[in-house]
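ARCHIVE CARD
Drawer: 12
Card no.: 0347
Subject: one protein chain, sequence and derived structure
Cross-reference: see card 0346
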Amino acid sequence: MNVTEALKLRHTGRAFTPEPVDKETLLEILEAANATPSWANTQPWEIYLAAGEPLQRLRAACLASFNGNQPPQQDLARPGKWPPQIEERMHELGKKRFESLGVRREDDEARRAMSANGIGFFGAPAVVFICMDRSLSQWSVFDLGMLSQSIMLAATERGIGSAVAYAFVAYPQLIRAELDVPDEFSVVIGIALGHEDAEHVQNRFRAPRRPLTEVVRVAGL
């Protein structure tokens, strides 16, 4: 598999089988991704890998907080407002996802179940939590984004599904408690890794992409 094939094959898996991914494969993925470039070779990422019983405890604790209506407290705040064209794409994505699942807009129970699925890491057998020192800036967040892509592409090459989600870090205090993450680290994002449930309806949906003519502005060619 080449890089272009991996880029086109990779997608967000929202349902995983309980089959574990062996430690050797997970570490191979992280070893490959650790070659990701960063600003002035700062390598600002701190990686915490959770699986087995620690992940099960963390999943249960996060779901308990969600079901108890505890508000999310992510370390990295989400934007308060999106540009109109971006917000439109987000709404269109949500609409198409709900339609593909047969979920009506007014079905609050089904929509909440979908949210709970995200809080529970989509049932994945392993989750990578990417952290960085709180004193770092948005430039280091950019580096963490590149690392995240590297992890997912390395996973795809090895036949492992992935999902990166803001919902995975909704309760960073629980992640710190279970994985001994120091207070000086921000828990930025989580990436679920596992074997996708190919038959699950959640995994049949593919998000559309903007055409290149809309995205790219060319000068000098």
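Annotation on reverse: The mean pLDDT is 92. The beta strands are 46-51, 126-133, 161-165, 185-194.
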